[in-house]
User: Fold this.
Amino acid sequence: MTRLNALLLLALIASAVYLVRVSHESRRLFAELDRARSEERLLDNEFERLKSDKQSQATPLRVEKTARDKLAMRSATPAVTQYISRAEASGAAGSAR
Amino acid sequence: MSWRDSIKSNGAGKTGRSANRSGASSVRSVTYSTSPLLASKTPPWRSKFLVAVVGLSFCGLLGRALYVQVIGTDFFQRQGEIRYARTLELPASRGRILDRNGLILASSVPAPSLWVDPKDLDADPVQRKQLAKLLGMTSKELADRLDDNPNFVWLRRQVDDQVAKAVLALNLKGVHQVREYKRKYPEGEAATHVVGFTNVEDHGQEGIELAHEADLFGRNGTRRVIKDRLGRVVEDIGDSVAPVDGKDIDLSIDSKVQFFAYQRIRDAVAENKAKAGSVVVLDARSGEVLALANFPSYTPADRKNLTGAQLRNRALTDTFEPGSTVKPFIAAWALETGRVKPDTIIHTAPGRISMGGFVISDSHPHGDLTVSEVIQKSSNIGAMRMGLMFQPREMWELYTQAGFGQKPQLGFPGAVTGRLRPYKTWRPIEQATMSYGYGLSASLFQIAHAYTVFAHDGEMIPVTLTKSAASGDDARVAGLRVISPETAKTIRQMLSLVTGPGGTAPKAQTIGYSVGGKSGTAYKQEGKGYATKKYRAWFVGIAPIVNPRIIVAVMVDEPSAGKWYGGDVAAPVFSDLVQQTLRTLNVQPDLDVKTQIIAKDVPAEEESF
Assistant:
């Protein structure tokens, strides 16, 4: 009987120690998860910021300026545009084949 | 006799040889069993008293335990929770505003706010100077700011991320940051009158930001957590409320068209030394607003030194007498009711008519004109003669159906109603002036909207600033019928004559696309009368005229560089805008253009295989 009690006591102590360990571990992991989540949020924000930065680098004003000044492009007029309708285009492709 | 004495005497009596030794050793050798003190009986009440005291204190403890655990448990649980549980705010991000192609017009970006606890601030003069420089203020400004309040001072709210990082890198004690968001407007001043802006608390103040505040503004969430001594979150407790992000708003604005409209009206205002200008571009099939621009404008990110003139969304808030632009409505109704035919002759000679002490005149006498020519040459007398064929009520209903005196159902803050008085109070002279556009007032947007009657085969369609789901031919919406499709077609032909030779606005012509429209010029109203040297010039048109896709309205306020007719000032802007917009919308030109593409018949290189 005494032996059994001693055994049970040992088991109890071991289980208690294990419980402490597990709960500590779970808290540590939770803190880590939380940190990862807040990092995710930061990165999302950053992504959003970069997208809008990209957009402000590609505004029509800037694009037009660059196209005109650096690339010496002109805006297309109907005089220099060949308009193709879809039917015509597929017809031409068919005859080319 | 004290007990010490009794011990001494006792010891002396027992052991005579140790009598002259020290007291300590004598004490050691005392035999207690013979102590008379011990011999005396302990009174029984003493032990009972002790038991009672111990018992009572246990009762006290028990009572306290009962109080803490059962009676006052709520209070203690709460107090405990306050010490370890924290409620974290989960910020919802404000929705974005996108154009019809999904390009960002407004989005929220993190912008930390820096604050300082001046009592805590530990910085030497060099560091202070660095700090001031980073924040973009002088050392004195910084010092003044720090003197404001001993506990809390905002250094700068909503700075750029990089600035915040640089400031925190100085590692000054007492400087802290708070996460906040600010709006970023990539399109800047070109789209600002449509998009609007938010205040520092992230609430919309103008434009779409204000109109769609409820949709854009999300709901913040909360979360209960347990924090450990290092401030780390170790457990979630209770239910958390997830944040609801604001919805994105898809506008019908095309940012390319919008930008071009803004740029073109800005140039036109500069060129004509004008005070201001506005442009409205509508999709004639779906009623979507493709562009709405005003000059002067402002940069939404930098709103210092803003003037009312810059803030005004003139296209929607400024009303003026629509003048010649309503003449086509009068002609349309006269045709619709069978009172005239397009080639009916109307006498406009001698170019001046006196009526009720008021003189109505044309810019120069025309003689006899057909209805088409009345529109083409914009004859006031011709329009008046047609207008006087109607009952006042008929004319009032026509104008009302075309949206004059009606608030545009646009859901946009500040859109005005204009003015159209009830027909019962009209005097005959007023009906006469109203038939050529004086005596009522409308905003440029209302005029553009009214022209959907002609562009949409006689139907007045609702306008919208948000993108409709359908695209292409499906996007065609049904409207309220005002005139028959045939009449609308006839009027469109008359409108195209305006831009032809002999019309008032040949400068509205474009390469490749047929256009039609109506110019307008007026003296500006000042007080009770009209100013003599101040004009307003505008042009409203439709393109392509055979199968309308867009309606463009242009208004230039006080052109003062020698030209002031709508056909000279506003029509060239219309022409450029039509050209650019239709090209952007991939509309094929409906007029023959002498092509400049020369494709030589070069034999293709044979592919090796």
In short: Chain A is about 80% helix and 0% strand.
